[in-house]
Design goal:
There is one protein chain. With about 350 residues, the chain is of the alpha/beta class. It folds into two domains: about 190 residues, Aldehyde Dehydrogenase, Chain A, domain 1; about 130 residues, 3-Layer(aba) Sandwich (Aldehyde Dehydrogenase, Chain A, domain 2), CATH 3.40.309. The strands form two sheets. The protein has a six-stranded mixed beta sheet, with helices on both faces. It has a five-stranded parallel beta sheet with strand order 3-2-1-4-5, sandwiched between helices. α1 packs antiparallel against α3, α2 packs antiparallel against α6 and α8 packs across α9. About 35% of the residues are buried. It holds the Pfam family LuxC. It comes from Yeosuana aromativorans. This is Acyl-CoA reductase. GO terms for molecular function: acyl-CoA dehydrogenase activity. InterPro entries: Ald_DH/histidinol_DH, CoA_reduct_LuxC.
Length: about 350
């Protein structure tokens, strides 16, 4: 199977996914194998929501829309054009996936297969319904994928390289367990926003998407703000207000109530608006329904701090502050070439 065949198969998968990229699902007669797969994927979405309360219809549709938009001939060819996509022989690449947001491991799955290797996938129990079904669809639109994709719940065996994502604790275990294999090991990272105090209401409203999408569970979600001394949070809270229906989600509300009780009993200073709390804290990883903030003195000092702690940061959201910044509202809209932890997985896969 050559690269154009692999690209074409993923383009067809993107067309299939486009039917599910809105909360109102719309069947398209032009999509291949719809008679066999359309109703089945609707059922998988239902199972995914029942299995994981964070996987709401809205959030699954948002994730699927991102992939439907990415899996186009233009995007795939642009992404891969700078590489020599020839490999000596296919390798078995183990992929250990997280399960914090829907289809969070899809980029690794895509990268392994598009580069010509075989995928041995170990999924999180939190996100186990969608990808195996999409893999079956992929095998139907391109039968040469059959035999190149394996899902397992057992101990991983018979692999040549590994891409593993987990917490800081599991990452240390991965590094020890896979020390004899070529690997990409990812651990906890969080995203931050740098505010100057000159942001418009529209910019801060866009930032709310970076904070609340997927309930803040993704590594690309903003969990920490850096603000200048004497920053006034009034406009910030005004910009967040249109997300207030989020408190109607029971799991989110339970986390909000619990964390608020902890802060009050511990007599921590915090500000809240009924569905979001902000608390001054040097940490990057904030609990659900909470965003930490920290004051900075000068832009240069903050740049030095962020650079020194870059291994803890996934994205920096700002406007004209730093190189490779992400625009407000765009952390959950990564392109195919926006690699997690800034590690080029295609380059890695072409050299194993």
């Amino acid at each position: 199977m050559n690269l154009p065949q692999r690209i074409n198969a993923f383009v067809k998968l993107g067309e299939f996914l486009s039917q599910f990229s809105n909360e109102i699902i719309q069947k398209k007669e032009t999509v291949e194998h719809n008679a066999m797969f359309f109703e089945g994927f609707k059922h998988q979405l239902k199972l995914a929501e029942e299995n994981n309360g964070w996987f709401t219809k809205e959030n699954m549709a948002y994730a699927i829309n991102g992939w439907a938009n990415s899996l186009t001939p233009e995007n795939l060819n642009k992404w891969l054009s700078e590489y020599n996509m020839e490999i000596a022989a296919p390798k078995n690449v183990a992929i250990i996936m997280a399960g914090n947001i829907p289809l969070v491991g899809f980029h690794d799955f895509l990268s392994v297969l598009i580069s010509g290797h075989h995928a041995l996938v170990k999924q999180s129990s939190n996100d186990k319904h969608l990808l195996p079904y999409l893999a079956k669809y992929l095998e139907f639109v391109e039968p040469k994928f059959k035999g190149t994709i394996t899902f397992t719940d057992d101990k991983l065996d018979g692999f040549d390289a590994v891409i593993a994502t987990g917490s800081n604790n599991t990452a240390r275990y991965f590094e020890y367990y896979f020390k004899g294999k070529p690997s990409i090991i990812r651990n906890n990272r969080n995203s931050v926003a740098v505010l100057s105090g000159k942001e418009s209401l529209e910019e801060l409203q866009a930032l709310s998407e970076d904070i609340f999408r997927y309930y803040g569970l993704g590594c690309r979600n903003v969990s920490k703000l850096f603000v200048p001394k004497n920053y006034n949070f009034e406009l910030f809270f005004n910009a967040m207000y249109h997300w207030h229906p989020i408190i109607e989600k029971t799991k989110y509300a339970n986390n909000y109530d619990y964390n608020k009780a902890v802060y009050l009993m511990s007599e921590f200073d915090m500000l809240e608006n009924g569905f979001l709390m902000i608390k001054e804290d040097e940490s990057y990883a904030s609990p659900i329904a909470t965003v930490f903030y920290e004051y900075y003195d000068t832009a240069e000092q903050l740049k030095e701090k962020l650079y020194s702690q870059k291994d803890a940061i996934q994205c920096i959201v700002s406007n004209g502050f730093i190189e490779n910044e992400i625009a407000f509202g765009h952390t959950q809209k990564p392109q195919l070439w926006d690699y997690a932890d800034d590690v080029d997985s295609i380059e890695f896969l072409l050299t194993i």
